[in-house]
Amino acid sequence: QGQLVESGGGLVQPGGSLRLSCAASGFPFTEYVMNWYRRAPGKEHEFVAHISSTGGSTLYADFARGRFTISRDDAENMGYLQMNNLKLEDTAVYFCNMNSEDASDYWGQGTQVTVSS
Q: What span, in angstroms and rounded, lies between the C-alpha atoms of 1 and 106?
């Protein structure tokens, strides 16, 4: 059974940085694309970033472009979201998602990111 486990969230001041990690197991990691989503209090799930199965292409939400970087380490079955220059409005639970062409879809439990002074 496939599983994703996020880590790396926490409390950070505005302008600070965090690196979220997503550990995958139980499925062929290199056949899956990876996405990060977030859900802020009282809001819907929101797309943050995408990386292809090969790592050759990435896509970012407008608010993330230039501040966040998505990456993956296929040797370690890990994905990352480096977040710089964090803002108050980045406060949310961040989720890792991986899916494949056969419609297999996995979600992590989420990690809380709180940006506060």
A: 10
d(CA 12, CA 104): 34
In this structure, what token pair is assigned to residue 33? 């694309």
> Which residue has tokens 């209090």?
41
CA 13 – CA 88 distance, rounded (Å): 8
Tell me the pLDDT band of 35, cut-offs 50, 70 and 90: very high
Nearest C-alpha neighbor of 19 from the set 116, 111, 117: 111
CA neighbor of 96 nearest in space, from 86, 84, 109:
109
% the chain with pLDDT above 70? 100
